[in-house]
Amino acid sequence: MFGSGWRRGTIVGLAATGAALVIGAGALGVTWANGEARARPAASQAAPRQHAAAQVVARRSAAPPAAAERTTAARVAASRTGSSRSAVPWRSVGPGWVLDTYSAGTRARRAPTTLYLVSPGGAKYALHSWPVSATPAPTLVAWAGSKTEALFGLNSANGQPAGYGELDLTTGKMTRVAFASAATTPIGYTRPAGAQILAVTQTGPHATIARYTRSGALAKKLVTQDQALGASYSPDGAELAVPALGGLLLVGNASGALRKLPVPGAGAKATCEPVRWWNATTVLASCGRLWLVPAGGARPSALTPVRDPAKPPHDYGDLDAWQLPSGLYLQSAGACGTLELNRQAANGALTGVSVPGMTDSPAVVTAYGARLLVGQLGCDGGGGRLAWYDPATGAEHWLFKAGAGPSPVAYNSVENGAIA
Predict the structure, then answer these.
(1) What pLDDT does residue 152 have?
(2) 159 vs 46, which has greater pLDDT?
(3) How close are the terminal C-alpha atoms of the chain, in Å?
(4) CB contact at 8 A, 179 and 216
(5) How many other C-beta atoms lie within 10 A of the C-beta of residue 71?
(6) Alpha-carbon torsion 199, 165, 41, 367, what sign?
(7) How confident is the model at residue 398 (pLDDT cuts 50, 70, 90)?
(8) What is the mean pLDDT of residues 380-385?
(9) Residues 368-392, buried b or exposed e (16+ Cβ, 10 A)?
(10) Which terminal residue of the chain, N or C, has fewer Cβ atoms less than 10 Å from its own Cβ?
(11) C-alpha–C-alpha distance, residues 105 and 351, integer Å
(12) Which of 419, 352, 337 is nearest to 386 (CA)?
């Protein structure tokens, strides 16, 4: 899985061989998350709709926590990190599970940072802890489909980026990922198991997307294109979509570029961005509004209409969508770079959805059954809150009411979301 979090874009993992990929022009910088990789525009270029993004495909059954799971959660909460790792039911880990960091610290009072694995029912397993030090704790970037490895961005004592490392979740050992170029930024793990890392290297306006070994050695260059800073894999890793002018570009994991996927109405000089794969054969793309783009080349269809931000609920652009049993829900851009959660009716009309306890930019991380996993973005980019929310009933299941990290990553699901 790919790195996720309030600040990431999205990219879904690459198959080790024979996969295809969609690439397009981005802006300056890259953000990442579970289902797809996307360019992050420079501040001067950022439009309101570019402040968020996410991913989908509905799994229709959300399992409530079993009594045994609740008992395990209580026992794990009081255990040491080592014994908590040994208690993880790794065979049960799958859709609905999430990795996230937690710290009880504040700006005035620092505290250790702990990496938790959390089940759909809320059972928390402490996997690793970083003590308070002059060096900020690593930032979660991506989670491998193998379940037991995660990619982190490392920091220097002054808070600046200091490369990348892979953490073995079963042992707590961090191994350096040494890319040859400092300009190489990992997008995420390849699909399905995370055998390799997908990364982008930018040289001026040109960007090269390639596969690397988990130690950082170049394995295979896939495509070079102006501002090709994003990519989104199909659920099986066989295809990948990337932004392009007037549509998307489909790129093969082994053969390179396959074909252009035009989006009528996108504008020949406007860039379409892949949000994620809607299903096994269709890409959800953002081209002024949300489109469903068949990977086979058939004519795309608009999922959302063009919005008028002057009219309530003042939607400045739709960024992602989730089809739940109770309706179609959208992550939308609000005024001044904020985020909104809306429900779209059959005629395209919007109704704002309020998530209790998350009044400032609720950010969707993933969908599971009838629920959305929502995080509080907050004014500083990380409000520290994370909860499962059922928009049909209003029921909430809180995972963290404070202290959650800025980059939660849900397990290998095309429903994953990300905030740039």
Answers:
(1) 97
(2) 159
(3) 17
(4) yes
(5) 11
(6) positive
(7) very high
(8) 64
(9) bbbbbbbbbbbeeebbbbbbbbbbe
(10) C
(11) 37
(12) 419
* pTM, rounded to two decimals: 0.80
Nearest-angstrom CA–CA distance, 209 and 288? 25
The answer to whether 133 and 144 have CB atoms below 8 angstroms apart is no
Q: Tell whether 403 is covered by a domain.
A: yes
- The alpha carbon of residue 325 and the mean position of all alpha carbons in its chain are separated, in whole angstroms, by 22
| Residues written for the chain | 420
Pairing, β 20-25 against β 247-252: antiparallel
Q: Determine, yes or no, domain membership for 93.
A: yes
CATH number of the structural domain spanning residue 112 = 2.130.10.120
The Cα–Cα gap between 26 and 244 comes to: 8
Whether 394 contacts 346, CB under 8 Å: no
* Within a domain: 10: no
Reduce the secondary structure of the chain to three states and give it as a string: CECCECCCCCCCCCCCCCCEEEEEECCCCEEECCCEEEECCCCCCCCHHHHCECCCCCCCCCCCCCHHHHHHHHHHHCCCHHHHHHCCCHHHCCCCCEEEEEECCCCCCCCCEEEEEECCCCCEEEEEEECCCCCCCCEEEEECCCCCEEEEEEECCCCCEEEEEEEECCCCCEEEECCCCCCEEEEEECCCCCCCEEEEEEECCEEEEEEECCCCCEEEEEEEEECEEEEEECCCCCCEEEEEECEEEEEECCCEEEEEEECCCCCCCCEEEEEEEEECCEEEEECCCEEEEECCCCCCEECCCCCCCCCCCCCCCEEEEEEECCEEEEEEECHHHCEEEEEECCCCCEEECCECCECCCEEEEEEECCEEEEEECCCCCCCCCEEEECCCCCCEEEEECCCECCCCEECCCCCCCECC
251: in domain: yes
> Is 34:412 a contact under the CB 8 Å cutoff?
yes
Tokens of 335: 């005024």
Question: Which residue segment(s) compose the domain that 245 sits in?
Answer: 20-410
Total structural domains within the chain:
1
